[in-house]
Amino acid sequence: MKRNILVPIDFSFDSINALEHAISIANKIQADVRMINVRKSKEIEIPTYFKDFNFVFGKTNEGYFDILIEKYKKKVKGHFDYKVRDGKVYKEITNQAKYDDSYMIIMGTHGISGFEEYWAGSNAYKVVSNAPCPVLTVRNGFPCKAITKIVAPIDISKESRLKMANVAELAHFFNAEVHVVTVRETNAPDILERLKNYATQSCEFLAQKKVKCILQDLYGENITDISIEYAKKVGAQMIAVMTEQSENAFNLWLGAYAQQMVNHSPIPVLTLRAQVLDK
């Protein structure tokens, strides 16, 4: 079955930037691209992105999509289409991903009109935390680039390592190196030893998949900040994190931390749900 990538579009510059990232990735992994918009009304104001376009298609969600299809269809190697749905934004996006058995959702982190409820505070995290597949969130200021370096933070929970299969697959497609980064807020010897063992296992797994692995240990007060700073320092194009872990005192990526990463990282963040990967 061919892979497909779902791209939420609210016709903002942010979502169009995410579309360009999706096309680049889809062409590399031989996937189709489907755009989706959750309609708020039959006719919407002309988004800034479309101000200079000739509206032969009409000022509707479908009309704006037709413009995007016309503009990008020659750049997409696979099938390229769109869906317009009605309802709650995050539910319609995640439901469409389920119907399509999507390989990945790629979306912007800030939008307009159709995404107001979606990107308001903690609601921004609803798609990420309910998606049936990995979600790549992209900030508008991050240009579309070839993926050559992926940062994969690791903590002491088993869920933290579940992302390695997906990370290895993407790294293989792009011939990218993976930076396995142990992140911690303590110098406790037992934690250090366990992190070392988990990182070694992760690197051995990547080696089996013929993916170059670089191991790094990071210590600091805020693991989100130190992970982002490291990714910026090495020039990474992606950070991969889990959305939830099992409950214990040393979970570094539980809830709020993953949300911080999605909300604050200038580098695209690939988030994966343990509940989905562990099936």
Q: Your description of this structure?
A:
By secondary structure, this protein is α/β, with parallel strands linked by helices. It has helices spanning 13-29, 61-72, 89-100, 126-130, 159-162, 164-174, 189-208, 223-234, 256-264, 274-277, and strands at 4-8, 32-39, 80-86, 104-108, 135-138, 149-154, 177-184, 213-219, 238-242, 269-272. Helix content is 38%, strand content 21%. The chain has 2 domains: 4-138, HUPs (Rossmann fold, 3-Layer(aba) Sandwich), CATH 3.40.50; 149-277, Rossmann fold (3-Layer(aba) Sandwich).
Briefly characterize the structure.
The protein has 279 residues and is α/β, with parallel strands linked by helices. 38% of the residues lie in helices and 21% in strands.
Total separate domains: 2
Straight-line N-to-C gap: 19 Å
What is the H-and-E element order? EHEHEHEHEEHHEHEHEHEH
Report the strand count: 10
Helix content: 25-40%
Structural class: alpha/beta
Treating each run of at least 4 consecutive H or I residues as one helix, how many helices? 10
Task: Note the overall shape.
Answer: elongated
Offer a few descriptive terms.
alpha/beta; Rossmann fold; about 280 residues; 10 helices; ten-stranded mixed sheet; single chain
